[in-house]
Write a structure and sequence with these properties.
Keywords: Nucleotidyltransferase, Transferase
Order of helices and strands: HHHHHHHH
Number of helices: 8
GO molecular function: nucleotidyltransferase activity
Shape: globular
Radius of gyration: 14 Å
Protein name: 3-deoxy-manno-octulosonate cytidylyltransferase
Length: about 140
């Protein structure tokens, strides 16, 4: 998995400092390396490239998004039927729509408190795509 991250990551413009950030910062936030594996393996199946991880960490850090959100998305998301491609859609499509990653954090954190599962995020993105655009009105 480390090889996959380095090799595939290099192709996608992901530098190794991202891996360090994920492991070091991730450990502080309760994210174990298996999350990285899950992201790469499951993500590859869903068409998610490592640059998405970089985008999440780099842009996310600027917006105050910690890595526990990524863990929550992958772990809880899997239980709710949300695949990593949703994360890609959120970051890529969201950026085009002017949505920053803090929205994802807000959705997961606030949503959990309100009893909202991540399948809602999936429905929001999928349905939004069908409607010709994604508009996020989460806060």
């Amino acid at each position: 998995m480390l090889r996959a991250f380095i090799v595939k990551g290099s192709e996608e413009g992901v530098d190794l400092s991202m891996l360090r950030v994920f492991i070091v910062k991730g450990s502080e936030e309760g994210v174990d390396p298996s999350m990285l594996r899950a992201f790469i393996v499951k993500g590859s199946e869903e068409g998610v490239d490592p640059s998405m991880l970089r985008a999440f960490i780099v842009k996310g850090s600027e917006e105050g998004v910690d890595l526990s959100m990524l863990r929550a998305f992958i772990v809880k998301g899997s239980e709710e039927g949300v695949n990593p491609s949703m994360l890609r859609a959120f970051i890529v499509k969201g950026s085009e729509e002017g949505v920053d990653p803090s929205m994802l954090r807000a959705f997961i954190v606030k949503g959990s408190e309100e009893g909202v599962d991540l399948s809602m995020l999936r429905a929001f993105i999928v349905k939004g795509s069908e409607e010709g655009g994604i508009r996020f009105f989460l806060l």
